[in-house]
Request: fold
Amino acid sequence: MSCKSLKKSFHPKPSPQEVRECINVAFWGNNAYVKKFINKYGAAHINKKNESGATVLMFTAMQGDKDALAFLLEKGADIEAKDRWNMTALMHAASHGHKDNVMLLLKNGADTEKKCKDGRTALMFAEEDRFFKIAKLLKQWPERQRKLKERQLARELDEITKTVMGGLTKALPYKPLFKFLPPGGSS
Reply:
C-alpha cells in the first residue's frame, strides 16, 4: 500500500463542536448532513452523545428515516446505547410510531426487554402512545425469534446428520449381512 492510498484511508478529526452539531442536526431530521458528516469523518464518532445522552441513532429512530437508520446501523452505531433516561433507539422509535424503524432495529438485534429509568419498555411506550401495530409486533417478536431459531437449529442438525451419514456410508461400504438364496434353495 502506498503512502498516498494510506493517507486517503484516514479521516480528518472533527472538532467537538462539529460532533455536537451533527448530533443536534440529527434531532431536526437532517439525515443528509449526518451521512455527509460520517462519510467525511468516518464512523469513529457515531456513538458520541449530546448533553442528554442521546446519540445520532436515537434521533434518527425518532425521525422515521429508515434508510438513514440502516446507514447508521451499517456503520456500527450502538443499537443498545442509552440516553440519560435509559431510553434506547427502539424505545424512541416505538414512542414516535415508526413501525419500519422498530422492525429494522429488531432485525438488527435490539433488546425488547430493556427498561428505561421509570421501568417502561418499548412495548409500554407503543401501548401508551396508542401505536397498536407496533405494540403487536413487539409482543410477537420474542416468539417469532424463538421459532426462527428452532427452524435454524433444525436445518443445522439436518446438515450435520447428512454430513455424518454421508461420511459413514463412504467409510463403511455396504456389505450384506445375509446371503439371500433364490427360490429353490441353492446358489
In short: The chain has nine helices and no strands. The first helix runs from residue 3 to 9. The two ends are 76 Å apart (CA to CA). Confidence is low (pLDDT under 50) at residues 1-7.
